[in-house]
Amino acid sequence: MDKAQTDRMSEAPATPQEERAARHLRMLARAAEIHMEIMEATRTEAVEAPQPGIDYGQRIAVITKSLRLTLLLEDKFAGHRGERRKAAAKRESAQEDWHDLRVKLAMLAAAYEVSEDDEEVDRRVAEVCERVERPEVAELIAASRPEVAVAALCRRWGFPPEVERWLEMADEAMEHYGFIPPEDGEDDDREDPPELRPAGTGRRKPKPPDTG
Description:
mainly alpha
């Protein structure tokens, strides 16, 4: 990972999942502090004002065991948080590497979704495949962020400007074929990946019945 990617990771706003994980880590850290405070108070009482009938050794052993479990949970949460950040960075890097393909698949998804039947799907897909190879379009895609490029091409080609949806569909298709890692960072060992569709979903829309 280069410095630019590292900087983006540190500057990117935390997701709700990351905020929740950070809150849990703070809670566990505070719980560990409380355990230490109780242990210190128990030690002080045992040395300076011991109470009859109290097994201070047993009390400290129970606190120590609970503290150990708290610290293990804290380490586990911290490790998972780091793994999620690494997975997100790896996915972002792959999306950048396959930037052109991602935008093209997003536009194919839009073409598929607005089509009413197989014939229209074929026509629109063919049009998109031809248009994205035009020099001015290729230049736009290469020079723009995915969201900007997809929004601009949707306006230009008359597709619904559902940019986030089209990019999500493109990401699904790229995940299926191994161009980018899954969002959860785990390898998907599908033996038979689903057939790649422009929209990354379902079957084509059926041709309407001939009522004429």
